[in-house]
Specification:
Layout (H helix, E strand, L loop, with lengths): L6 H16 L9 H14 L3 E6 L5 E6 L35 E2 L13 E5 L3 H7 L15 E8 L7 E7 L11 E10 L6 E9 L1 H4 L5 E7 L7 E2 L7 E2 L21 E9 L6 E5 L5 E6 L13 E9 L21 E9 L5 E3 L5 E5 L6 E6 L5 E6 L13
Parallel strand pairs: 3-12
Antiparallel strand pairs: 1-2, 2-4, 5-15, 5-18, 6-12, 6-16, 7-8, 7-15, 8-9, 9-10, 11-14, 12-13, 13-14, 16-17, 16-20, 19-20
Length: 396
């Protein structure tokens, strides 16, 4: 009996035959078995959508039923009850709004409908162009290809979260695989079993398809053996219909010009035990969270909190922050401002520069410094031009 083939199927098979016959970038051919693995992966990511929405910069996201997002494929979250709002009162020090412009990256026309969350649509052609199912995360195999310029508290403490304003720039990357990040971390546990939660902005063309700075989240519970960015694996729960990982951030800061920032908080909810990602200086918007069931060492509290920059490369490395060294100061170097922690008293307080340490492993490429500004807030400045950072260098 004759069978029929649709136009979309025909186009897809033409794409497959093209890649199979001519090879991918780098001269590698793709086998049918690998193609079907990619197809399975895109089906995992692409859930049935209620509607599509457009962000302020023209990106298209799909509005997916909040209960059908990838997080709930995690075996530990089968009977999980979604947390829709914080249940912890964030008492203690709060900061006044500064001259730094606060970013708004919500979608046009109010975003997704209630009961749905925005997820970036994955296309199989994108994965075919990359040549394999993407492993968008850090792991033991490539950890020495990452460089850092950070600040952290001197003493290991019981920490229940941090909040900060992240100055937004557009560092230059030379190729799609290079990565440049500004972020906040909360971590606990030994290195080989490290639990970490990270959030901030990134420039990473291999993940996002362009070199725009975008909001991101990341987590791992096993020392980076597994883990991933945004909603590319099971675990992180998206809640907000208006702000989501993957959104581009505009406008951006300019050298000697207007400075822009996003304000993020990672906070332990004392009632549910989940780690919340909050948006805005008033910490009023819940973007999403990491359920406590994902972690062992972070199940109760964090031991280390950090702020700063990270890059990834191989033969060369991208700019970090503004691409300028921190000694150039405000308006020229990238900064993180209004840095706060939720301490062992579970009170939100400012961080004193005297209780911090800065770290950087390749000072000819990136550095970090800490300062107290005229408004009595703690600022850290970090970044640099990148380039040939392969040569080993002693950290400060």
């Amino acid at each position: 009996m004759a069978s029929s083939i649709g136009l979309s199927d025909l186009v897809l098979w033409m794409v497959i035959l093209h890649f199979h016959g001519n090879g991918l970038a780098g001269g590698r051919s793709i086998a049918m078995e690998e193609y079907f693995q990619m197809e399975t992966y895109t089906k995992f990511l692409n859930r049935p959508a209620i509607k599509s929405i457009e962000t302020t910069n023209g990106d298209i996201f799909e509005c997916v039923d909040i209960y059908k997002q990838p997080a709930f494929d995690h075996p530990r979250l089968k009977n999980h009850t979604i947390q829709m709002r914080p249940s912890t009162y964030l008492g203690g020090t709060k900061n006044e709004v500064s001259a730094v412009k606060v970013q708004n990256i919500e979608q046009k026309n109010g975003g997704c409908p209630l009961g749905t969350v925005p997820i970036h649509r994955a296309r199989i052609t994108d994965i075919l162009m990359k040549g394999s199912i993407p492993k968008f995360g850090k792991n033991d195999g490539d950890r020495f290809l990452h460089h850092y310029a950070t600040m952290e508290l001197k003493e290991v403490q019981s920490i229940y979260g941090t909040a900060a304003g992240l100055n937004v720039w557009k560092p230059k990357v030379q190729n799609h695989s290079q990565l440049s990040i500004s972020q906040i971390w909360v971590t606990a546990g030994p290195d080989n079993e490290l639990n970490t939660i990270e959030a901030g902005w990134m420039v990473y063309p291999n993940l996002n398809g362009d070199d725009e700075p975008r909001l991101f989240v990341y987590w791992t519970a096993d020392g980076y053996k597994h883990g991933c960015y945004n909603l590319l694996c099971k675990g992180y729960v998206q809640v907000s219909p208006n702000v989501a990982p993957g959104f581009a951030i505009h406008p951006i800061s300019t050298y000697n010009g207007t400075q822009y920032a996003i304000y993020l908080s990672i906070v332990k909810d004392m009632k549910t035990g989940n780690w919340l990602l909050l948006w805005g200086e008033d910490q009023s918007k819940l973007i999403g969270y990491w359920p406590k069931e994902l972690f062992n060492y972070l199940e109760d509290k964090a031991e280390v909190v950090m702020w700063g920059g990270e890059t990834y490369g191989t033969n060369s490395y991208p700019e970090m922050g503004s691409g300028h060294f921190p000694e150039e100061g405000a308006g020229r170097a990238c900064f993180i401002s209004k840095i706060r922690v939720f301490d062992y008293n579970r009170i939100q307080r400012n961080v004193d520069p005297a209780e911090t340490l800065t770290h950087y492993d390749v000072p000819h490429c990136y550095r970090s410094i800490v300062d107290r500004s005229i408004d009595h807030q703690t600022y850290m400045y970090f970044g640099g031009p990148g380039g040939n950072c392969v040569t080993p260098s002693y950290p400060n």
